[in-house]
Each structure stands twice: as structure tokens, then as C-alpha cells.
Amino acid sequence: MTAALEFRILAPDKSTAARRGSVTVRDQTFQTPAFMPVGTAGSVKGAFPSDLEKAGVEVLLANTYHLYLRPGPEIVAKAGGLHRFMGWDGTILTDSGGFQVYSLSDLAKIDDGGMEIKSHLDGTVHHFSPEKVIAIENALDSDIVMVFDQCVPHSAPRALVVEALERTTAWARRCKTEHERLDSTAALFGIVQGGMDAALRERSAEEICAVGFDGYAVGGLSVGEDKTTMHAVLSATVPHLPADRPRYLMGVGPPDDIVNAVAAGVDMFDCVIATRNARNATLFTSEGQLKLRNSSLKDDMGPLDPACGCVACRQFTRAYVRHLFNAREMLGPMLATLHNLHYFQELMRTARDAIEAGTFARFRDEIVRRHGPSGSGRSAIA
To answer: Are residues 223 and 266 in the same domain?
Structure first.
């Protein structure tokens, strides 16, 4: 398999496993560590593509399962691919939909052939095989394609974890074969599973790496386990992934979790937490989380975040944005979304700068002090 992706390590950290790098795919480059906003159905909720660019977003995530259900890959292909359909010129990564099937497990049946699921929209039954998923992702014309995998709950019995691990490996091989058959120019990422068992994680990493991919993702975390367990599993997994390929931690987004994962050697992140929390009147700021519905803000004429330069912080007060939420004006969630998008991109930029300056460990400790502990941001729909 010829590499469809170039990963360059520009500055390794001296005191942690963090690295500052860049990923180039299809002649477009994004900087790492990178946070990908989630555009589940081809739209980052509450934001124009130009807003994403202004915030510094270079790569975003869209979801194969949801785009398959509506509008359908045929419509997207007719538009010239997802970039043109949604008006986004940056890099697009498509998740395979494995997590959505997990989160909608009461509607799904799984066997070695794939997954059968009833649509959460209209109850119609759909079957997804590894080959079909890869075909859909290529029809969408995403730049980075994820293999189909099976995710299990953190409390799943060992027998189920092993079964899902073996199925994930078998599906990964089939995904790669189909990707090559289609002569795709997109990059293809494998996914490591294995539950909360370090030995199974090592086994999964070895099997997925043996198949050979352009990049490697750690899946099956932030599925209900506590933070200590999540970080222990991640730390036990990352060393078994190739150092010269990008590493992607799927669905993990709280700032303290991100910086701890960067310290473990992770390069890419996605989560709905930035946009979902914004729509629920919660901001991430340089001073920690800000709950906009708090009555103490009703006459606060200060900016949302005094350290932020986004348009929401430059032009509007806490009192005003709080009023918008209370009045159910759509501008409130939109302004909150703009700020949170900006915050997460600034978090990654300052993380990259800290790695280059040799101060990342101190930066990580400050972010953990400011934001931890916090809840998981994983959700089926952004």
C-alpha cells in the first residue's frame, strides 16, 4: 500500500512523549496536535465554513452513518464530493460509523459479515459491511477514511472484548482490500480496540499495525470508564503504535484529557464537546468553564473570555449572551459555538508552541488544573 499521507515530526518534546508535527494528504496540510470539530451530517452546527477557517480549523470530521442515511452518498457524489457539498476546502476525515452503531446498539445486530441496524430516523433496516462502509466513504470523497470497527462498552465481559477485537482486525483487512480495489487516493486509518485490558490493547495494536495503514486510531475509550482507567489504557496502547505515523484518539475532547493524551504521544482528536456544550450554554475559557445561564452573569458587562480574540468575545458581553439564551434567540448558541471552536483551536496552537519551546509539561499541568476533572464529550450526534 503506497502511503497516501505524509506525517512529519517537527519538534519532539523532551520531557513527555508529545510531538509537534504536520499531516499532508491530497496536497493539504494540517498542523498537529490537531482538534477536529465534528460535522456529523456535513455541518458543524451553528458555524459557517468561513467561521471555522477564522477559528483556525484545518481538519474536521464528518460521519459516514449519518450521511448515508441522509442525504445519501449518491447525492453527495453528484455534488462533486463532500468538500463541495458543504463548502469546506480544508481536510475532511470520515468516521466509519462504528461508534454510532455502538451508541445505537438497541437498534443493531452484529456478526462477522457486518452490522444490521434500524435507522433512528424512520426504522428502515440497513446492513453495513466493511466493504460497503469503505465504498460509502470513498463516494463521499473524504481525505482520511476510517476502517469499520466494533466498539464495546467499558464493562463488557472479556469474551465479548476478544470477539470484538478479532472482528475489528478481520474487518480492517477487508477494509484495506476494498480501499485498494477502489484505487483510492484517500488515506486509510486503522483502529485499535481491546477494551480496558492492556494486554488485549497490545494484541490489537500489533494486529492492526501488521495490516499496515497510513495512520492509527485508538477507539473504544470515553465509553463510560473513569479518567484514570482511560489514561492508563491509552498510555499502555500508544507505545505499540508506529512513531512515524499519526495517532488519533477518537471521541475524546475535554481539555484536560486532550493535553494528557498529547503528553502520551497522540496527534489528533475529535469530539462534539465544543459545539454541544456551546449549545447548552457552557463555554471553555482561559479561566475554566463558564455557565452562561448563571444568574451572577445577568449584569456582567465583561467579555465571555478576557483572553480570547474571537468575534463573540470582542463584540459581546456575558450579560448579552446570557440574555440571548434565556430569550431562546439562536444567536446565543451561535456565538457560544464560535467561541468554543476558537478556544479549542487556540488550545492546540498553544500546545504546539509549548512543545516547540520545551514547556509543554508546565502547559499541560496548567490546563489540567484549570479544567480537570470534567465529563466525557462523546455522543452519537454532534
So the answer is: yes
8 Å CB contact between 270 and 61: yes
How far apart (Å, rounded) are the C-alpha atoms in residues 149 and 249? Answer: 14
Q: Tell me whether residue 244 is one of the annotated catalytic residues.
A: no
In the β-sheet with 247-249, what is the strand arrangement from edge to edge? 34-37, 268-271, 247-249, 215-218, 187-192, 144-146, 91-95, 59-63
Judge if 237 and 354 occupy the same domain: no
Give yes or no: residues 72 and 170 share one domain. Answer: yes
Which of 271, 306, 326 corresponds to the end of one domain?
Answer: 271
Closest CA to 68 of 119, 123, 107: 119
Per-residue pLDDT of 200-210, as tens digits, reads: 999 999 999 99
Catalytic residue among 143, 214, 267, 270: 270
Those residues whose C-beta lies under 8 Å from the C-beta of residue 163, and which sit 6 or more positions away, are none
Same domain, yes or no: 175 and 241: yes
- Tracing cell 441496524 back to the chain, one arrives at 117
Confidence of residue 2 (pLDDT cuts 50, 70, 90): low
Contact 178, 135 (CB under 8 A): yes
Contact 266, 238 (CB under 8 A): yes
CB 114 within 8 A of CB 147: no
Catalytic residue among 95, 143, 256, 267: 95
Residues 103 and 219 reside in one and the same domain: yes
Task: Pick the closest to residue 68 from 129, 4, 156 (CA basis).
Answer: 129
**CA pair distance 194, 164, nearest whole angstrom:** 8
Q: What is the pLDDT of residue 99?
A: 75
Residue 220 dihedral angles phi and psi, to the nearest 5°: 75, 20
Burial of 165 (0-12, 13-18, 19+ CB in 10 A): buried
Q: Which helix (H) or strand (E) holds 263?
A: helix 255-263
Neighbours of 15 (CB within 10 A): 12
Q: Are residues 261 and 290 in the same domain?
A: no
Residue 141 is among the residues annotated as catalytic for this protein: no
How much is the average pLDDT of 341-352? 98
Buried (b) or exposed (e) across 360-369, using 16+ Cβ within 10 A?
A: bbebbeebbe
Q: Which domain holds residue 75?
A: 8-271
- Give domain status of residue 2, yes or no: no
Q: Please state the pTM of the whole predicted model.
A: 0.96
